[in-house]
Design goal:
The structure is a single chain. By secondary structure, the chain is α/β, with parallel strands linked by helices. It folds into two domains: 271 residues, NADP-dependent oxidoreductase domain (TIM Barrel, Alpha-Beta Barrel), CATH 3.20.20.100; 66 residues. The chain is built from 16 helices and ten strands. The structure holds iron/sulfur cluster (2 copies). The site of one iron/sulfur cluster (SF4) has 15 residues, from α15 and α16.
């Protein structure tokens, strides 16, 4: 296992972090998996108040001395917060579930527009500082599925120790993206990566050409290995979370992370990732190239961003993250497809001759259906 510095905190963490969101159905199997990971060098676990029974099972797995061998991260359920006192009430509940007297890394969960407003309104940042003073938490962080601009605003507004972002080979410039990764790291935040395989759908929906390219590459690695490798090659990445749901998967991940030092990819390896990305892109269903000639829209519709979300969604269905982003970030920000008044201005500038207003209606209907 490779280890790295966790931002400015002084912690040394394994580059592989166990995501505790997709535990095996059987509790004993889950406990065995967590302990196997720790016994094989993993020292970072990530759970959340909202991950079903995860905190309780994680707490059981960390008995018998395992707690002292790990850094434990969990998250505050911001959407349940109505007043300042609720933050500590939920934290105490989590400490109880996890059977511990402190959380090493405590995150404000999913800083979308609404949740960030709640944090500001209910003084969530002061809560974090107070909990550090009380010793209930050691380090302060946030997780985010949001735009780069929002990420920078949140990142600049507090002395954060870490941030958890979505990043994978298809999302180089999506949401916070690589630019946000570098921005956060330069500020001294530990950068933790979630959804490296988009919940596994990046693998299950891989076009046939992708497998052919990988098989034909001189360096023999599996698709999952290339997905992880592209991430751990970046020195700004502290921990990559993988939510394994079986011991077999965990063992495979541990094998991949045995040699996960940064800056190890050759130029030809990066080229392979570029071709793999193009193969996924060619399967997208709206032929938007992202040229942005249609922008700005007088009604503030984020046309290329909406089409990008939709195309990504088509690639990794039934994974819902793009849908959530549309509903919880783009729509509340007033730049969703619902703002389109069908003026047709954008269409005149589109080199791909896309029927933009009709496509926006289609995307909006699909993204907002329950
Ligand atoms: S048709 Fe809709 S998206 Fe296009 S410019 Fe007009 S309002 Fe904006
Ligand atoms: S002009 Fe057309 S192809 Fe270019 S970003 Fe807008 S919708 Fe996409």
């Amino acid at each position: 296992m490779e280890y790295t510095q966790y931002g400015k905190t002084g912690l040394e963490v394994s580059r592989f972090g166990l995501g505790c969101m997709r535990f095996p159905a059987d509790e004993n199997d889950a406990i065995e998996m967590v302990r196997y990971a720790i016994d094989h060098g993993v020292n970072y676990l990530d759970t959340a108040y909202s991950y079903q029974n995860s905190e309780v099972i994680t707490g059981k797995a960390l008995r018998d001395g395992y707690r002292d061998r790990t850094y434990l991260a969990t998250k505050s359920p911001i959407w349940l917060i109505k007043k300042h006192e609720d933050f500590e009430k939920h934290l105490d509940e989590e400490l109880d579930r996890l059977g511990t007297d402190h959380i090493d890394v405590y995150l404000l969960h999913n800083m979308n527009v609404a949740n960030w407003e709640t944090v500001k309104k209910c003084d969530g940042l002061a809560f974090l500082d107070r909990m550090v003073e009380k010793g209930k938490i050691r380090h302060k962080g946030f997780s985010v599925h949001n735009s780069l601009r929002a990420f920078k605003e949140i990142g600049d507004s507090f002395d954060w120790d870490m941030s958890q972002i979505q990043l994978n080979i298809l999302g180089e410039a999506q949401q916070v993206g690589v630019e946000g990764l570098k921005y956060g790291s330069a500020k001294g935040m530990a950068m933790v990566i979630m959804e490296p395989l988009r919940g596994g759908h990046l693998l299950s929906n891989a076009p046939a050409e992708v497998h052919q390219m990988i098989e034909g590459h001189p360096e023999k690695r599996s698709l999952v290995e290339w997905c992880f490798r592209w991430l751990y090659d970046m020195p700004e990445v502290s921990v990559i979370l993988s939510g394994t749901n079986s011991l077999q998967q965990l063992k495979d991940n541990l094998r991949i992370f045995q040699h996960s030092a940064p800056n190890s990819m050759l130029e030809e390896d990066q080229e392979l990732i570029g071709r793999v990305r193009e193969a996924y892109e060619s399967k997208k269903s709206i032929g938007c190239t992202g040229c942005r000639y249609c922008m700005p829209c007088p009604s503030n519709v984020s046309i290329p961003d909406i089409f990008k979300l939709y195309n990504n969604y088509q690639l990794v269905k039934p994974h819902q993250v793009d849908k959530f982003f549309y509903k919880n970030v783009l729509l509340p920000s007033g730049s969703g497809a619902d703002q389109c008044v069908s003026c047709g201005v954008c269409q005149q500038h589109c080199p791909q001759s896309l029927a933009i207003p009709d496509l926006l209606k289609k995307v909006h209907a699909e993204f907002t259906e329950s």
